[in-house]
Amino acid sequence: MSYQPTTQYYVGIDGGGSTCRARVADHSGTILGEGISGSANLRLGLDHSLAAIRQCVIEALKQAGLNSVRFNELKCGIGLAGLVLKNDNTTIQPIKALFADCRLTNDAYIACLGAHQGHYGGVVIIGTGSCAQIISPTESRTFGGWGLTLGDQASGSWLGREAMRLALLAVEQIIPMSPLMEVLSAPFNHEAEAIFNWGLSARPADYAQLAPRIFQFAQAQDPYAQTLIQTACDEVIRLIRALERYQTGQIALLGGLAALYQALLPLEMQSLLTQPKGNALDGALLMARSL
To answer: What is this structure's pTM?
Structure first.
């Protein structure tokens, strides 16, 4: 399409922990283009987030045929991973300043907004990280989302880190080896020092890549994988219970590991869950178009 100077363009951005996605739409809501870049997690630094946001917006504008549109002509809604501290509201000002107008929240809020298409409800998000979000008549708040150091229970990064801790113990013969421990330690030649050195620079996304394998080995009755998945399921249930008390009648399980967990939850928990009606990019665009 060609650039129309009288048209207001909107961009929604899902700045996730693994990928950052942008979607451009016109005033009628027609989606014109999308772009993708790497992690936008604010905990990795403002410059890191800015670079990811710029890259995916440029790509979305290019796909839409809107190369001549400048950032300061766009109204923008952003959900950003790692936006959890009070002073982050000051840190993010350079991101907001990129656009003509911008509303910036955490990524859980836009996921919840999109999942229920602007209506009240809650979401439990289990991907690279984990958290829950409620939007209700009485309160909108996030549960968790503190990152891997003290949080992110049941997330892909949490599963991967805990599995690698066990692999290190197994290599040192503190605990018995298992098929999963063999597979995880094999790339390091079963050497404790090599595992330790990898862990010094490993990021949450690196650990999260191991999560699907842990689910597979749990299904194959690996004892360590089974224990990890059971512990993780208990954490997911805790988050669902936290949302249930708001009585919105709508709780959705989201994220890359959502389907794997949902199949393992007790039937009582599964009965509380509803299907999401949209995604985080839908929520981000809803915010942008409300400006």
So the answer is: 0.83
Task: Judge whether 59 lies within some domain.
Answer: yes
d(CA 9, CA 28): 9
pLDDT tens digits for range 130-142: 999 999 999 999 9
Listed residue (260, 259, 184, 178) closest to 221, CA to CA: 178
* Beta-carbon count within 10 A of 6 CB: 5
> In this predicted model, what pLDDT tens digit does every residue of 260-279 receive, in sequence order?
999 999 999 999 999 999 99
Residue environment code for 20-48, b if the CB has 16+ CB neighbours within 10 A, otherwise e? bbbbbbbeeeeebbbbebbbbbbbbeeeb
Say which CATH number the domain at 252 has: 3.30.420.40
- 240 domain residue, yes or no: yes
Rounded to 10 degrees, what is the CA torsion of 79, 84, 87, 88? -30
Q: How many CB atoms neighbour CB 89 within 10 A?
A: 11
Q: Which domain holds residue 85?
A: 9-116+277-289
Regarding whether 226 and 177 lie in a shared domain, the answer is yes
Residues 76/264, Cβ–Cβ less than 8 Å: no
Q: What stretches of 16-129 adopt beta strand conformation (E)?
A: 19-25, 31-38, 74-80, 101-106, 121-126
Alpha-carbon span 30 to 67, nearest angstrom? 17
